[in-house]
Amino acid sequence: MRLSRYFMPILKENPKEAEIVSHRLMLRAGMIRQQSQGIYSWLPLGKRVIDKVNAIIRDEQNRAGAIELSMPTLQSAELWQESGRYDAYGKEMLRIKDRQDRPMLYGPTNEEMVTDIFRSSVKSYKDLPLNLYHIQLKFRDEIRPRFGTMRSREFMMKDAYSFDLTREGAEHSYNKMFAAYLRTFDRLGLRAIPMRADTGPIGGNLSHEFIILADTGESEVFCHKDFVGFDIPGENTDFDSVEGLQSIFDKWTSLYAATSEMHDEAAFNAVPEGDRLSARGIEVGHIFYFGTKYSEPMGAKVQGPDGKEHFVHMGSYGIGPTRLVPAIIEASHDDNGIIWPASVAPFDIVVINMKAGDQACDDTCELIYAALTKAGKDVLYDDTDDRAGTKFATADLIGVPFQIIAGPRAVASGEVEVKDRKTGARETMTIEAAINRFVA
């Protein structure tokens, strides 16, 4: 992608409305633009990041056996009236009517709809276990949307829903998502700690929030410091192994960890003083087991091996991609801008032409750009005629992991400079060596 032809509206000044680092940097880097209170457009740079975040989420959901579908954003109020949540949910739900005066709502979550899909299609225990997920825009009319897309009214959510014949089966499905979430956040460059949490309007009696520690977190969290060093489940994790997944769950819940709503001061004080960690945290995922809370009122049941009908046991599992992006920035930035983990960076490499119009610089940059693109790398080529300082500032601001810098003096010697955005380390090498570093 040539920067001269790309849409990336950089802001030179810090936006006054941005209260936290991630909001400021996302606006300055041209990733998002606010359309109204708590509602944002994702511009091309931001869209590239969120697409990569979603690709990792999909990969780990699929690995754990979940199956993707797509459900509509607008839902019939009748389904929510069946479950008993229509009046109970509160003012966060956006209620509307269509032209036939039928009550509708802009979905804040999809337990009712997916239960309706299940009950109309699945009749036998032989079709279980089943886990269905989608990635979709949702709306909750937050009383105080803030911090950019960290807490917005319209947001993207990956929500999965599991169906099992028994509680034991449902707990295994819960453990699948528990392990999948640990893997997902690790691949996004985050250390997420599962903490006992309140179930809120979703309901149920088993729930964990996945929290990353950050000074700008919305709530205080309390945990044992050893969580920071726990090993993440590997790529070869057997998601069919009941014992294996239970051991992962047991390990990651063996030490104290709780959000402020579930905090037990006495239990926390029982942790050795040097091992206690209290900090601010950002919620990046939330999982629930709620048994037959929705299946009973909505009649979602299957015939069991005993020939009798049984209400299915359910769980739901959410990750917010539009919240994850600012969370990653909060965890990885410096005074100059964003520092993206390679897995979600909008581009792998930015090639900086220090003197656009100079034949040698142009030819060198074109050669590098073509070679890296052919090798499957996402490359941003800064072919603009901006000043050197502006080019460097832009590259640092948008956080691309590596910069290849081609200036007249270096190019005359057959060399370019390679900069590591995270460490700031610079290395001069031949043009061929620079290409091979990222292609080999």
Summarize this entry quickly.
This protein has 440 residues and is α+β, with helices and mostly antiparallel strands.
Tags for this entry?
440 residues, nine-stranded mixed beta sheet, alpha+beta, five-stranded mixed beta sheet
Number of strands: 23
What Rg do the Cα atoms give? Answer: 24 Å
Question: What does the largest sheet look like?
Answer: 9 strands, mixed
The share of residues in extended strands comes to 25-35%
User: What sort of overall outline do the alpha carbons produce when their principal axes are compared?
Assistant: globular
* Approximate helicity band: 25-40%
| Unreliable residue runs | none
Number of helices: 13
Structural class: alpha+beta
> What's the pLDDT, averaged over the residues?
95
Q: How widely separated are the two ends?
A: 21 Å
Write up this protein.
The protein has 440 residues and is α+β, with helices and mostly antiparallel strands. Helices cover 32% and strands 28% of the residues. It is built from 13 helices and 23 strands. The strands form six sheets. Strands 3, 7, 8, 9, 10, 11, 12, 13 and 16 form a nine-stranded mixed sheet that branches. The protein has a five-stranded mixed sheet with strand order 20-19-21-22-23, with helices on both faces. Strand 5 and strand 6 form a beta hairpin. Helix 1 packs across helix 9, helix 2 packs across helix 9 and helix 10 runs parallel beside helix 13. It is globular and about 80 Å long.
